[in-house]
Structure formats: structure tokens, C-alpha cells
Amino acid sequence: MIDLHTHSLHSDGTQSPAELMTEAASRGVTVIGLTDHDTVAGYAEATAAVQTTGVALVRGIEISARHHGRSVHLLGYLVDPEQGIREHCERLRRARVDRLESMVAAMARDGLLTWDEVMAVAGEGATLGRPHVADALVARGAVSSRDEAFSELLSASSPYYRPYWAPGLGEAIDLVHNAGGVAVWAHPRASNRGAAHSWEAIMTGVELGIDGLEVDHRDNPMPDRRLLADIVTEHRLVQTGSSDYHGSGKVNRLGENTTSPNMLERIAHKATMEVIYP
């Protein structure tokens, strides 16, 4: 069972990389992709857990990008962190922190939240994002769940929302390719959270050289999955399926969607870094 999209506490998951690997083993996952948002900080710990858990590791990253003003999440598989990835992560980390500080300052003026509360739930070393603000709002009792926070106080229509810098889609694809990795568009038709991209935008991604599409994801509606699979077939792309697991941060469960062995083999063949096997 191959699950190529998961998160640890180094971004917005709730488990350490080792805990994530251990749970993957308990759920019958044989290969896991660690794809924290804009950070590679979990690589060493996850790699060390390969032998003890028996779960193979695909080192990856979920890069925040933009296309025509809209957020795109790009999965980069088997990237070399020393080929521009670490520099990108640091730049985006600073942009995220600046953005969140501005959002929380606005909330603080209305008595909703403080920066100390956000840092208390984020933990040391996390790549800060809106999910940490959502968790702080839940802890404060301002909202009942992450979903409620995102639909109200953290939505793009909220007076507290602030944009932040992110690379364009083509720039992000080039970043992955220059680091020897494989670029896959994550949950491109995520309609249930208002993040569905147009078919025209997805085809632009194909023209820009994207390597694959995350087809089987709980946020892609079933009819759209069939259309995405048709694009994959027509353009000879990689097709993945994943859980987008965040621990207790989301309802997604490990292995609820999976990637076929032959697609993993194509990813490994195309990339310069290797899958780490027990």
C-alpha cells in the first residue's frame, strides 16, 4: 500500500515523522511520502525510522505556489534539498511568518487571539501556516474546529485574511525539476474547500511541464477524478492517489487513497534521489 501525501508536525500534522512512520506500519502502508508544507526538516527522523518500521520512504515536499492569483499546492517527490529547496523553504517561511503575524495582530485588536497562543499550539520548528492559527482559535474556544476556522475567520473573504508571497506555478515546477524531483499537482479539483482549479489552469500546468496529477484524493469529486485520469493518460503523466494525512488535524486516514506500484516506479526512475527501502 503506497500513500504519497502525508504531513508531520514539521508543517501542519500532529505527529513526529517517526510516529507517522510507525502508524503507517500499523495500518499496512508499505511506502509513505513525507510531504510537509515548504520544509524538509523531517527527512532525517523519517529516514532513521525506515529500518525500525519496515516502511519505505519517499522524501518529498508540498510547495505553496500561485497561478492567476490562486493558491496551488505542488508535490515535489525525491527532491535534493541542497539544490535550491532549502533556500526556497527559508524564503517562504519568512513570508508565512510575516503574513500570520499580520493576521494575528488584526485578531488581537479584536480580542480574538494572541501570537503567543499560536506559538503554543504550533510547537518548536514547525513551518507556520493558517492551520496553526486555526488550532489556536479552537484552543481559545473561538471556533469549534479547524474547518469552522477556515470557513469563517481564516477564509479569503475574512477581514483578517492576508495574502503572502509564493512562486508562480511554472517557477515552482522548475524548482522541483532543478532539484532532480518529480512535480505532481496536489488535489487539483478540491471543490469541497473552494480550491478547485479550472480545467484550463490544469492544462496550463501540463504545458508548463508538470509530471503528474494527484487524481485519487478525497477532495477531488468522483466525476472529476475520471476526467483527471483521462488527462493523465492522454499526456502520459504520473497518476497518484494519497490520503493527505495530517494526524488528528484532519479526518483523512492513512491509506484511504493509494498510488500504484508502477506509478511509484515511474517517479523513482525519473528522479535523481532514491526511495529509501528497509
UniProtKB/TrEMBL annotation:
One Pfam match, by short name?
PHP
Top-level lineage group: Bacteria
Domain Polymerase/histidinol phosphatase N-terminal span(s) in chain numbering: 2-67
Q: Can you say what this protein is called?
A: PHP domain-containing protein
Q: Which SUPFAM superfamilies match?
A: PHP domain-like
Record's PANTHER family? Answer: EXONUCLEASE, POLYMERASE_HISTIDINOL PHOSPHATASE N-TERMINAL DOMAIN-CONTAINING PROTEIN
